[in-house]
Amino acid sequence: MKNILVIGSTGQIGSELTTALRKQYGGNHVVAGYIPGAEPKGELAEGGPSAIADVTNGAQLADIVQRYDIDAIYNLAALLSVVAEQKPQLAWRIGIDGLWNVLEVAREHQCAVFTPSSIGSFGPNTPHELTPQDTIQRPKTIYGVSKVCTELLSDYYFTKYGVDTRSVRFPGLISYVTPPGGGTTDYAVDIFYAAVRGEKFLCPIAKGTRMDMMYMPDGLRAAMELMEANPDKLIHRNGFNVTAMSFPPEKIYAEIRKRCPDFKMEYQVDPLKQAIAESWPDSLDDTAAREEWGWRPEFGLATMTRDMLEKLTEKLKG
Ligand code: AKB
Question: Residue 246 C-alpha to ligand 1 middle, in angstroms?
């Protein structure tokens, strides 16, 4: 990859991925794409070029790709699962019409494309325990529908036009940098903010509900390592199961209490989030990612919790 465009560079994944890509490929080689109202700030604004890159505007994307001689696009524009249920048409416009624009620009200008899929691409009749790489995907949410469509359309562009499309099915991503907004797994981030602020946490997900999760440094590595992987070794493309840990709320609560013994949590279950969580896998089987491009997570529940508490305490002090 010579020059990279990150669409959605100020979002939860984009804000950290853009910085990580700039470290690896050089600041001037990574363009931070954003929409008006979500301008890059600080390190993100100063570390390299930025440009308005609205995924729903194909001509604008084509112009940036030409101007910066882009050969790889990280397409991170999306609404998360809960907010997508409230705005299904917008979710489709961004997730699918937007993806179509990205893929067309990539086809015309020979760019590689990474577009995240999600555990949300699975549904209630998917096997929930050690969910296989290739299995039933019949989600009931618009988020899930758009993620299945993302996987299929990305594979289609690879097969039909040779566009180098690659993707992972992200679990819930946990980070202290940019908070997520409108996801089902957000509770696993929010719980840390409550613990560090010394507040009681009202958990929207019921006791016993397990979901896959991953610490952001592993998530960034997954995206970057897949894009650098030897294409001859890839049997799958869009998208690979990847996971680092799987836990229910009471387990992360217990882990945090080892370091914050006075921390309190109560359940106040949100019916929409709970229904979505129950339709998603309890744990993913990521053997294909491990075998085809050497995927290995570095953080488990204990190491992630320690690092999150330390980093978030530091951040909220400042
Ligand atoms: C969400 O909860 O919507 C996302 C996801 C798992 O895709 N974090």
Answer: 14
Task: Please tell me the distance between residue 170's alpha carbon and the centre of ligand 1 in angstroms.
Answer: 8
172 lines ligand 1 (CB under 6 A): yes
4-171+215-241: CATH number = 3.40.50.720
Reported as a single tens digit per residue, the pLDDT across 185-234 is 999 999 999 999 999 999 999 999 999 999 999 999 999 999 999 999 99
| Closest atom, ligand 1, to C-alpha of 212 | 6
Name the pTM for this structure: 0.97
Neighbours of 194 (CB within 10 A): 19
Instruction: Tell the residue nearest (CA) to atom 8 of ligand 1.
Output: 172
Spell out a b/e string for 65-89, using b for 16 or more CB atoms within 10 Å of the CB, else e.
beebebbbbbbbbbbbbbebbeeee
Topology adopted by domain 172-213+244-317:
Rossmann fold (3.40.50)
Q: Is 215 a catalytic residue?
A: no
